[in-house]
Amino acid sequence: MSYDLGKAVGYSSADQPVSWTRKDILTYAIGVGAKKDDLSLVYELDKAWAPLPTFPVVLNLKGNDTDVTLFASKLASETAPGLPKLKPDRVVHGTQSIEVLRDLPAASGPGWKLSSRICAVHENKSGIIVEKESTLLDPQGTAYAKLFSSSFYLGAKANGEKFSKVIAGAPAAKPIPKDRKPDWVIRDKTTPEQALIYRLSGDYNPLHIDPAAGKAMGFGDVILHGLSSLGFAARGLIQEVAKGNPRALKMFGVRFTAPVKPGDELETQAWEVGPGPNGTTEITFITKNITSGKVALGNGVAFIKKAEKSKL
Length: 312
What we know:
Blueprint: E1 16-18, H1 22-31, H2 39-42, H3 59-62, E2 91-100, E3 112-124, E4 127-137, E5 143-154, E6 163-166, E7 184-189, H4 194-198, H5 211-216, H6 226-241, E8 249-256, E9 265-275, E10 281-289, E11 294-304
Antiparallel strand pairs: 1-3, 2-5, 2-8, 3-4, 3-6, 4-5, 7-9, 8-11, 9-10, 10-11
């Protein structure tokens, strides 16, 4: 049987209701490593408090839920036209980006949703990659964030031929400058309990809490959510480049390249590579897992407004 993979590109799934509270915002901040001194992230009464702009990345799995959910129930999905049936237990998160269009409110209230479509499909000898574009909309249809993510279905086959069709995508990272050291180096250490906290933001995959699941998947033990590592890197850049102003980050994207285990130490190396849109600075970065020696996040790109230097 042959598949017309191009038919899947542009396919829109049903809108997904989503919601969050101030408590969700605070939980997410701690799940991505916010510390006791990060009052602008963890204390809702601090005059500078604001949601971390990467928070919407959790909404695809969290949805409208207010309690713990069964991860397996989140895996069932309709098959888009043109695609073969894909196995949800053979998928890895390949890339994730978010573009901030408007500052996120501290609590959603009812009526918010994610509107999503397939924006790219690729087939190669290793499997099938499906890329999705999602827009976070308020009850009036105003867009607050645009997210791109890719899912790599290992071993999946459609026609056994190389195929690629793309109609939209996130900005690509510029190459790392080879002639100079990073402009910022940010080290942070995850805790052994990091995944226990991050999962409360809606990703209850047993891989992140049950050692048996980690061994069955070939990791030897539990691993940290990739989106928690993403949050560590974003929070670090906000702290160093924007002096802790969460509203300064306007776009952020990464490729997940190697797992992180709870307790591992991370180091983000970032280079300023030019001006970005709307008064931002464009940054290329990687995040290394110091404990394993591998790059955990590659192809990092961020648009962020640098903090103004003091004139004193």
